[in-house]
Amino acid sequence: MGVRLMVVDDHRLLAEALASALKLRGHRVLAAAAPAAGAADLVIARAPEVCLLGTAAPAEPGIFDPVVKIKRERPQVAVLVLGPVPSPRGIAAAFAAGASGYVRHDERIEGVERAIMKARAGEAAVAPQLLQGAFGELLNPAAQPDDEAQRLLEMLTPREVEVLVRVADGEDTRRIAAGMGIAPSTARTHVQRVLMKLGVGSRLEAAALAARTGLLDRAGSLRDASAD
């Protein structure tokens, strides 16, 4: 039985070509293209079983915000990110946002279909070589340049920096919310955005990255300076 799905990408020719190929294989394609800004709303309105969501820059901060919105409003929709060869951190960010998998733009249609079926079944759908690259990065992280902490700090808002410091201190969502005077749902959203911006898949990875790059020391200095 075919899958009820959507192909959402701002490159219309790519989206329509993939949609046509999937229709020929018996799937029900609800939409073929949409601008990136409206992608999440379109998916939420149509509520497919699986959505193939195109992206051109998997390492860009906030690029997976549509995935977060879709999963918040329609948690039953499995989202497969469709994009170029990603960095290991890009894959981690996609999964942190709630994606069910990552499919390369140059994947054969058989591979795309396998990923769709896995996603519908609730399984992670990502090529083994991409997973190997992600594991390699986590086990043997590349040396960070001296200004890496500053670059990361510039990606985060002051509130997100505070959230990261609290995460590194081992605070859970409830304690973060209480300490910052915000709702637990808001604290959870802040944590998720921090993970996405840092390109990591867990709080532990975020804390390790912050400690390794000296970001925590830099953030502490900034906080002390603002308090004076």
TrEMBL record:
<dbReference type="InterPro" id="IPR001789">
    <property type="entry name" value="Sig_transdc_resp-reg_receiver"/>
</dbReference>
<feature type="domain" description="Response regulatory">
    <location>
        <begin position="4"/>
        <end position="120"/>
    </location>
</feature>
<keyword id="KW-0805">Transcription regulation</keyword>
<keyword id="KW-0238">DNA-binding</keyword>
<dbReference type="GO" id="GO:0006355">
    <property type="term" value="P:regulation of DNA-templated transcription"/>
</dbReference>
<dbReference type="InterPro" id="IPR000792">
    <property type="entry name" value="Tscrpt_reg_LuxR_C"/>
</dbReference>
<dbReference type="GO" id="GO:0000160">
    <property type="term" value="P:phosphorelay signal transduction system"/>
</dbReference>
<dbReference type="Pfam" id="PF00196">
    <property type="entry name" value="GerE"/>
</dbReference>
<protein>
    <submittedName>
        <fullName>Response regulator transcription factor</fullName>
    </submittedName>
</protein>
<dbReference type="InterPro" id="IPR011006">
    <property type="entry name" value="CheY-like_superfamily"/>
</dbReference>
<dbReference type="InterPro" id="IPR016032">
    <property type="entry name" value="Sig_transdc_resp-reg_C-effctor"/>
</dbReference>
<dbReference type="GO" id="GO:0003677">
    <property type="term" value="F:DNA binding"/>
</dbReference>
<keyword id="KW-0804">Transcription</keyword>
<feature type="domain" description="HTH luxR-type">
    <location>
        <begin position="149"/>
        <end position="214"/>
    </location>
</feature>
